[in-house]
Design brief:
Family: Belongs to the E3 ubiquitin-protein ligase UBR1-like family.
Structural class: alpha+beta
Strand content: 5-15%
Shape: globular
Helix content: 40-55%
EC number: 2.3.2.27
Strand order of the largest sheet: 18-17-21-22-23
Bound molecules: zinc ion
Main location: nucleus
Oligomer: single chain
Number of strands: 25
InterPro entries: ClpS_core, E3_ELL-like, E3_ligase_UBR-like_C, Ribosomal_bL12_C/ClpS-like, UBR-box_UBR2, UBR1-like, UBR1-like_WH, WH_DNA-bd_sf
Catalytic activity: S-ubiquitinyl-[E2 ubiquitin-conjugating enzyme]-L-cysteine + [acceptor protein]-L-lysine = [E2 ubiquitin-conjugating enzyme]-L-cysteine + N(6)-ubiquitinyl-[acceptor protein]-L-lysine
Number of helices: 63
Length: about 1750
């Protein structure tokens, strides 16, 4: 279809070109009716440019539009060529000082915690870096898109509002100049004209609602009849649903459907069909039918193509306007003026109003275009920002209602602009006073929450999903309210007072609807049937928490407002609970001669609610009265006399009693919803405006009433009145056999009540309650948190309440109370409490949860014991109350209190076990302690002559009166001091008695009494005794714990044994894992060892005994015995790769015989080193497999390893494994024959081997020729001339036991299968190659690790590595015995041919393209297959040596050919060294052989140096290889790190230290070989610069460099767009740490097909970059991602830390993050060690949820 259109478009182009912008503009300048003229122009051209086919051609459209449509406008506006006009305007412009950069999704934004007025004030990265805030405490986040940089906005910053770039010149301190003065009259007039027409056109066409018709003035004469079937976005249907429906409806492929869906999701609409009306209508009906089943259908419209064309141009026009006004602030102002000008229809008829009001009807794309325009125009112009704010406020209700019913996310709604307006303090203040904004917001909010119960309270019961959805949207209004209130006014006008109080009234109305909502009744008998809905109410409470606090802040800033607010709040509270009208009956309570009237009300029987916001607000205001001293200054203005303390305390008290009863287990049948509510009531997110305020309200109440009365009411509400008002009630318990449950309940209730009293007296750290400031409050919180345990910064932050600016105020005080301990390689930085702060610890701190309290108690007692102190935790000394609360302390010495204390002590003395608990006593002791501290304080602070009325000590010394005649409290304490059952509390009782004496002393002012002193010594002694006892007790506990753990362990073992019954005859001991001969024996220093060749040092291997970890049997490793195996993991690897673009394309055809020097596809073998019998392992593996098959259906996915792929976990260490390596003796010894003749030299040897090879080849050729006549083989053989002693018909016996042979095959096949990713086939000729390759590659990778870490080659290797290398090498050397001899011989021949040319092998690579170490290993390990048929007396060792020398020489040639000798002219030609001269000679030969293509001859010194450096890795690898192959111990010199080991290595490897000697000794053959190597065409090409080659030494691969500052990564990622969906921002940009590629992870757009499955970008990338394993950084989450294969993955902690030594996964806290190099190195090390997969395995074993993640979609 597109091709059909082409000629038409071509034709059009010509007519367009004729249309000149200048002429058109000229015509317009003359026009009398400009509007008509322009509209005609648009009506003619727009449909001819836009929407010419099914798919848009944006580039072409834009180009034409610029030429034909926008060009004339620009000409018109400028009055000349815009190319000159606009720059002129720009020059004349005086730019505003606002940055106003609009944020892209994912762009980093910065806020200053010190200077930002509120957290919504942010800077772009550029401004931030140029601002003073970069040295402040800043916070970094990523933008969700929308919003702009506040740089230059003086209202947004307390300090430093400008960055360097936007800095004001001090000379031009602005007095708002009108930007229009900088424009000429003409330009103003023309701009005004054209803006007015174009803006109106855009608004009209975008808000046009008819689908098939155009506005009258745009109608065309000839109307083509094409339509679009337009699909719109909604947030209801999923991606999958839309894709599926589209495939059905418009017959497209899945890929096209994904394309449509992606565009719909991004732009909000997309045409899915183009054609005549019928055709489109048909698609529409299918889509609607298919999507209407469960939800409302997808929105589809059939629209006329010219309408769509105009709309597209309308959008283009808006963006054009946005860019034009960028030239000049004057143009911007004109646009603002045009936009806000009221139209002919009066109110709401301005263009801006019209757009806003149709916001919810527009599609996403259109919305964001005009929002952007608003932001760059109205919000950037200070004058019009204000006018716009007013329009916005006037339409507020409408806009919000539209938003609530609309289903798009908030960021796509114009309502979201509120944050830009309301957070400007001056605008917010103006809108409150002039538009009554506060009231409007609250009323709008209330309007949307219509569900009320009979009393008019909110009701969330039975509310539907739709309502829940709506409720979520309505919550954004609370956010608006928060913005409006966020900055408190410093100065109040009367108007502001008035409007604020009006808003306050509305707010009280809102709270009134919450007071008492969601009431609950205790469930008795049956458990509740359905958990009631509770979350909605709490959500509301939580969202309002900050608002309530802010409202209080506002009140506190003005006394008049505070007084009025207090009165209003009290009034509303009285309306809610005036005069106990709930129908409760009055009753009278009396104890100790006091009596009080109250009502009969039982929390356990009647309705009770946790929501009391009105009471709590009043409590808050009351404390403010106290704090600001308004209460003393203007008592006459306050309605204090109207306060009825019993009424104030009633509901908060009920709520606290409810909590107590829940703890006592009385509400168990009410289910979890109640438990949750109680939890949140105390939680740090809510407690500030819930629990804390209830405590304050009770404090307020007690301070205003007789404490005896209060206590009686409290007893009654706790339903404990009976117990304490009836003498001897406690005794009755023991005699009557009451329900144990009831007693237990009552005990808990008494404990809770005492705790409450402790809190009422002790919680004085709120400014206004006690004489403290905010700093002391926060200090106390931190001290108590750190009393539990040392904490990380983020943990502390989480436990402290945040204010509306997300600040806890912690940084200001933390240094004074805690020490910081830096983190190590893992873990986090920690704060530890300073010891001197311990004395401020209060065991009954009210924000402790139960668990925290007991942990803190334990920790503090332990601390005291460590300091050799007694373990009493007495109450701390408290600050005094504020005067308004001062009388509260009297509760401690009130009669009822003393009665309660006395009664409980009495129970403790009588100690009848039942109606009594230790914690009850502990609390009473604490209360007594508090009273004593109080009295002491009073005495110490009392002025002379002043009578201290707090006389607790006197009161507790008095015995009870008749008739009880109970002993005094003091006397009882003295009795209890020696009670054996109160051991734990002894120290506390002693402390009380001591303090009592001290007070007595102060009172009597008498000298120390001798009694006290003796008591002191007794105390010390007994505390020593106690220490001993304590230690004994601890030891006992430790013993018990150990026993318990042992019992558990043996239980677990039994379980394991049960599961693997057949494997266990004996008990499993956990230590028998080591092989008996790990160390290769003590090294005799001074001896020189030779690792290979005829002169090899002969070592007799010790007999090696190993223990099977499964059956625990010990066994000797022998050739003919049962096989012992090591668990091993084989994986493909690109860790050493120098060419990541290369990977195995077609594994079936891939030939691995020669490894390329770029090492691009290696196979690595690792092992945990744990040894098993082969048969034990086999049985273990079978049982794992069976178990898996049994649970296949249900749980198969939940495994960290893939059984079907042969994976299992090492039974001992749970290390991921996929095969086993057999344990072998040095295999060469088995085949050693006597050396009965002189050994040939290199030249001779090469000749002999060449002859043997030739013989083999001709034999093979004949065999192939005469396959049918196989019986004649022997005859044929005779015809070939055989070298002396060569017997090709000889087939050696395999010396290994069947079992070992089997294991050789098993491991060989596994290496082949994993390394090539093919199906296992033990017959495949590539199996032996893969085994040799894995051996070579693994040795190379270990050599790299050792070099990188500067470790010695033969230093102490971790024994698992040592075991692994030894087994792997010996295995690889033995494998040929189970392979076909012919195959191995053929491999050898071909390998050999790469160095010694052979006619029948012309397909070998040139020496530049061979990794010499791989070649060496393969040649050496394949050689026995040839040698075993050679009976001429040439030993294996001789062959090894010659092979080694030959390969070494080839490598030297390779190095010289590729050494990039940047000649250093400064080098002195100092040709003294023998090596240097020799190297130079060799180089000259090379120069000749290459036909002088090799570069000019550099210095010999230089050459020799590069040979030495280049060959080192090869020599080291070879040393490791021969060491493990032949078992010759390493010379001691190579075992330590330090100086160069070149000489030692050469000796060990039987090489001359002057390596060039090798050439000289064998010059006869070498010269011809060198010539053959250099003659190669590839070499020539390389030397002529036509191709690349690897040079030596190869550098180690590193992970990419990461920036120091994390935000530059975020910035980098925010500029990254999805490579597949045309410039779209990627949602989860992810950085490959191996190669640095940025990927668009976790999204549909970048999924690709891999082996028939859809996988995400990361998984796809791992296949090419990491052979299946990958290391990524998820930039937006700040999280490291490890991936392996398609199913495995885990997250790993990122190498970025904040200043507190913590990572920030998910970037939730936003503290600045900096690179931690050590942690990054650790990740790199994991990579180098090939431990990524293992790490994933461990992570998945530890955290099962990781197994469930669809890693392949990342
Ligand atoms: Zn900026
Ligand atoms: Zn700036
Ligand atoms: Zn700052
Ligand atoms: Zn065993
Ligand atoms: Zn293991
Ligand atoms: Zn990569
Ligand atoms: Zn993408």
């Amino acid at each position: 279809m597109a091709s059909e259109l082409e000629p038409e478009v071509q034709g059009l182009d010509r007519t367009f070109l004729e249309c000149s912008a200048e002429e058109t503009a000229g015509k317009w300048l003359q026009a009398t009716d400009l509007t008509r003229e322009v509209y005609q122009h648009l009506a003619h051209y727009v449909p001819r440019i836009y929407c010419r086919g099914p798919n848009p051609f944006p580039q072409k459209e834009d180009m034409l539009a610029q030429h034909v449509l926008l060009g004339p406008m620009e000409w018109y506006l400028c009055g000349e060529d815009p190319e000159f006009g606009f720059p002129k305007l720009e020059q004349a412009n005086k730019p505003s000082h606002l940055c106003g950069r609009v944020f892209k999704v994912g762009e980093p934004t910065y806020s200053c915690r010190d200077c930002a007025v509120d957290p919504t004030c942010v800077l772009c990265m550029e401004c931030f870096l140029g601002s003073i805030h970069r040295d402040h405490r800043y916070r970094m986040t990523t933008s969700g898109g929308g919003g702009f940089c506040d740089c230059g906005d003086t209202e947004a910053w307390k300090e430093g509002p400008y960055c360097q770039k936007h800095e004001l010149n001090t000379s031009e301190i602005e007095e708002e100049e009108d930007p229009l003065v900088r424009l000429s009259e003409d330009v103003i007039a023309r701009t005004y004209n054209i803006f007015a027409i174009m803006f109106r056109y855009a608004v009209e066409i975008l808000t046009w609602e008819k689908e098939n018709e155009l506005p009258a003035d745009l109608k065309m004469v000839e109307k083509s009849d094409t339509y679009y079937c337009m699909l719109f976005n909604d947030e209801v249907h999923t991606y999958e649903q839309v894709i599926y429906t589209l495939q059905k409806a418009v017959n497209c492929t899945q890929k096209e459907a994904i394309g449509f869906a992606t565009t719909v999701d991004r732009d909000g609409r997309r045409s899915v069909r183009y054609g005549d009306f019928q055709y489109c209508e048909q698609a529409k009906s299918v889509i609607v039918r298919n999507t209407s089943r469960q939800t409302k259908p997808l929105k589809v419209q059939v629209m006329h193509s010219s309408l769509v064309a105009h709309q597209n141009f309308g959008l283009k026009l808006l963006s054009w306007l946005g860019s034009i006004i960028g030239y000049s602030d004057g143009l911007r102002r004109i646009l603002c003026q045009v936009g806000l000008q009221e139209g002919p229809d009066g109110e709401n008829s301005s263009l801006v109003d019209r757009l806003m009001l149709s916001d919810s009807k527009l599609w996403k794309g259109a919305r964001s275009v005009y929002h952007q325009l608003f932001m760059s125009s109205l919000l950037m112009d200070l004058k019009y920002k204000k006018l716009f704010a007013v329009r916005f406020a006037k339409n507020y209700e409408r806009l919000q209602s539209d938003y609530v019913t609309d289903d798009h996310d908030r960021e796509f709604s114009v309502a979201d602009l509120s944050v830009q307006i309301f957070t400007v303090p001056s605008l917010a203040r103006m809108l409150i006073t002039e538009e009554n904004l506060m009231t409007i917001i609250i009323k709008t909010f209330m309007d949307h929450l219509r569900h009320r119960d009979g009393q008019g309270r909110f009701q969330f019961e039975r509310y539907t999903a739709l309502q829940a959805f709506k409720f979520r949207r309505v919550q954004s209004l609370i956010l608006d309210l928060k913005y409006v209130l966020i900055s408190r006014p410093a100065v109040w006008s009367d108007e502001l007072r008035h409007k604020f109080l009006e808003g306050f009234d509305a707010f009280l109305e809102l709270l009134k609807c919450m007071q008492g909502m969601d009431p609950i009744t205790r469930q008795v008998g049956q458990h509740i049937e359905m958990e009631p809905e509770w979350e909605a109410a709490f959500t509301l409470q939580m969202k309002l928490t900050h608002i309530i606090s802010m409202v209080q802040d506002w009140c506190a800033s003005d006394e008049k407002v505070l007084i009025e607010a207090y009165k209003k709040c009290l009034g509303v509270l009285m309306q809610c609970h005036g005069g106990f009208t709930d129908g409760e009956q009055p009753i009278t309570l009396s104890i100790c001669g006091h009596s009080v009237e109250t009502i009969r009300y039982c929390v356990s029987q009647e309705k009770v609610s946790i929501h009391l916001p009105v009471s709590r607000l009043l409590a808050g205001l009351h404390v403010l009265l106290s704090r600001s001293e308004v209460a003393y200054k203007f008592p006459e203005l306050l309605p204090l006399s109207e306060l009825s303390p019993p009424m104030l305390i009633e509901h908060p008290l009920r709520c606290l009693v409810l909590c107590a009863q829940v703890h006592a287990g009385m509400w168990r049948r009410n289910g979890f919803s109640l438990v949750n509510q109680i939890y949140y009531y105390h939680n740090v997110k809510c407690r500030r405006e819930m629990f804390d305020k209830d405590i304050m309200m009770l404090q307020t109440g007690v301070s205003m009433m007789d404490p005896n009365h209060f206590l009686m009411i409290m007893l009654s509400r706790f339903e404990l009145y009976q117990i304490f008002s009836t003498p001897d009630y406690g005794k009755r318990f023991s005699s009557e056999i009451t329900h144990k449950d009831v007693i237990q309940q009552n005990n808990t209730l008494i404990e809770e009540m005492l705790y409450l009293i402790i809190m009422l007296v002790g919680e004085r750290f709120i400014p206004g309650v006690g004489q403290v400031n905010a700093t002391e409050e926060i200090k106390r919180e931190i001290i108590h948190q750190l009393s539990i345990k040392p904490m990380a910064h983020s943990e502390l932050v989480k436990s402290l309440p945040e204010d509306e600016n997300k600040e806890t105020g912690m940084e200001n005080v933390i240094e004074t109370v805690a020490h910081f301990k830096k983190p190590g390689l893992t873990g986090r930085g920690m704060y530890e409490l300073k010891p001197e702060c311990a004395k401020e610890f209060n065991l009954y701190f009210y924000h402790f949860s139960r668990a925290e309290q007991s942990k803190a108690e334990e920790a503090q007692r332990k601390l005291r014991r460590q300091n050799r102190e007694d373990t009493a935790l007495p109450p701390p000394v408290l600050p005094p109350f504020c005067p308004l609360f001062a009388s509260l302390v009297n509760i401690l010495q009130s009669d009822v209190m003393l009665c309660i204390m006395g009664t409980i002590l009495q129970w403790a003395v009588e100690h009848n076990g039942y109606a009594w608990s230790e914690s009850m006593l502990q609390r009473v002791l604490h209360l007594i302690g508090m009273a004593l501290q109080e009295e002491k304080q009073h005495l110490e602070n009392a002025m002379e002559e002043h009578v201290v009325t707090f006389t607790f000590t006197q009161k507790i010394s008095k015995p009870g009166e008749a008739p009880n005649n109970s002993p005094s409290i003091l006397a009882m304490l003295e009795t209890l001091q020696n009670a054996p059952y109160l051991e734990v509390h002894k120290d506390m009782i002693r402390w009380i008695l001591k303090t009592f004496n001290a007070i007595k002393k102060i009172r009597e002012s008498s000298p120390t009494s001798p009694v006290a002193e003796t008591e002191g010594t007794i105390m010390e002694e007994s505390s020593r005794d106690k220490d001993k006892a304590e230690r004994k007790r601890k030891a006992e506990i430790a013993r018990l714990r150990r026993e318990k753990i042992m019992a558990q362990m043996s239980e677990m073992q039994r379980h394991f044994i049960d599961e693997n019954k057949e494997l266990f005859q004996q008990t499993l001991e956990l230590d028998g894992s080591s092989s008996a001969v790990l160390d290769s024996g003590p090294v005799v220093s001074g001896t020189t060892f030779t690792a290979l060749g005829p002169a090899q040092t002969q070592v007799s291997e010790h007999r090696q005994f190993v223990t099977c970890i499964l059956c625990q049997e010990e066994q000797e490793v022998k050739v003919e015995s049962k096989a012992m195996v090591l668990a091993a993991f084989v994986q493909r690897s690109t860790v050493l790769s120098k060419n990541r673009s290369k990977f195995i394309q077609d594994p079936e055809k891939y030939d691995p015989l020669f490894m390329h020097p770029d090492l691009s596809c290696g196979t690595h073998t690792g092992s945990c080193g744990h040894i098993m019998h082969a048969h034990c392992w086999q049985r273990y593996f079978d049982s794992v497999q069976n178990k898996e098959q049994r649970r296949q259906q249900r749980l198969r996915l939940h495994m960290s390893y893939d059984v079907e792929n042969g994976e299992f976990l090492c039974p001992l260490c749970e290390c991921l494994s996929n095969t086993v390596i057999p344990l072998l003796l040095p295999p060469r010894n088995i085949f050693s024959r006597l050396n009965f003749s002189d050994q040939p030299n290199l030249t001779q040897w090469i000749r002999i081997i060449s002859q043997q090879i030739k013989a083999l080849q001709s034999l093979r050729k004949e065999e192939n020729a005469s396959i049918p006549a196989s019986s004649e083989n022997s005859k044929n053989m005779e015809e070939v001339e055989l070298p002396q002693g060569f017997r090709p018909d000889f087939h050696p016996q395999n010396p290994y036991s069947e079992n070992i042979k089997e294991m050789l095959t098993t491991f060989g096949t596994a290496t082949y299968k994993v390394g090539l990713k093919v199906h296992p086939n033990e017959e495949d000729p590539r199996v032996p190659i893969m085994c040799w390759g894995s051996c070579a590659y693994t040795i190379q990778s270990i050599e790299r690790i050792l070099s990188d870490e500067d470790k010695p080659l033969f230093g102490p290797l971790p024994c698992r590595l040592d075991d692994c290398l030894r087994s792997l090498t010996r295995f690889a050397a033995a494998h040929w015995t189970v392979a076909s001899l012919l195959v191995v011989q053929r491999h050898f021949c071909k390998l050999f041919a790469s160095l010694v040319p052979n006619d029948s092998h012309d397909d070998v690579p040139c020496i530049l393209d061979i990794d010499m170490f791989h070649l060496l290993v393969s040649l050496v390990l394949a050689f026995p297959a040839l040698q075993c048929q050679d009976f001429s007396g040439i030993s294996l060792g001789t062959g090894d040596l010659h092979i080694f020398h030959l390969v070494t020489m080839a490598h030297i040639v390779q190095i010289l050919l590729t050494s990039c000798t940047e000649e250093n002219g400064m080098d002195q030609e100092n040709l003294t060294g023998e090596e240097e001269l020799a190297t130079l000679t060799l180089y000259k030969i090379l120069h000749q052989c290459t036909g002088s293509a090799l570069k000019e001859i550099p210095s010999g010194w230089h050459l020799w140096r590069s040979v030495r450096a280049g060959i080192m890795p090869f020599l080291k690898c070879s040393a490791l290889f021969f060491h493990y192959l032949n078992g010759v111990p390493a010379p001691s010199d190579i075992q330590v790190s330090g100086a160069s080991h070149f000489e030692h290595l050469c000796n060990y490897l039987s090489l001359p230290t002057n390596l060039i000697c090798l050439f000289q000794e064998n010059s006869e053959i070498m010269n011809s070989l060198i010539e053959s190597w250099c003659r190669n065409n590839e070499v020539k090409q390389y030397l002529e610069g036509e191709r690349d080659a690897v040079s030596y030494p190869r550098e180690s691969n590193k992970l990419i460099d990461l920036p120091e500052d994390y935000s530059s990564l975020i910035n980098q990622a925010s500029n990254f767009s999805c490579p597949k969906s045309g410039g779209d921002k990627s949602r989860a940009p992810t950085l490959c740490l191996v190669c640095g590629t940025l990927l668009c992870s976790q999204s549909y757009c970048c999924q690709t097909e891999l082996e028939g499955e859809d996988v995400g970008a990361c998984t796809a990338h791992t296949y090419s970059c990491g052979s299946g394993a990958g290391i990524f950084l998820r930039v937006r989450e700040c999280q490291v991602l490890f991936l392996a294969g398609k199913t495995k993955g885990c997250f790993y902690s990122p190498p970025y830390l904040d200043d507190y030594g913590e990572t920030d996964q998910g970037l939730r806290r936003g503290n600045p993050l900096h690179l931690c190099r050590d942690r990054f190195k650790k990740i790199q090390k994991l990579w180098h060690q090939h431990s990524i997969t293992e790490e994933i395995g461990h992570a998945q074993e530890a955290n099962q949820t990781l197994v469930g993640i669809d890693w392949q979609h990342l």
